[in-house]
Amino acid sequence: MTLLSVENLRVTFDTEAGLVEAVRGVSFALGRERLGIVGESGSGKTMTGRAVLRLIRHPGRIEADRMVFDGQDLMAADDAAMRALRGHRIAMVMQDPKYSLNPVMKVGAQLVEGLRQRDRMPKAEARAKAVEALTAVQIRDPERVMEAYPHELSGGMGQRVMIAMMLIPNPDLLIADEPTSALDVTVQAEVLSILDALVRDRGMGLIFISHDLRLVARFCDRVLVMYKGKVVEELAAKDLMQAKHPYTQGLLNCLPRIGGAREPLPALNRSADWAL
Question: How far is CA 144 from the centre of its chain?
Answer without folding.
Answer: 28
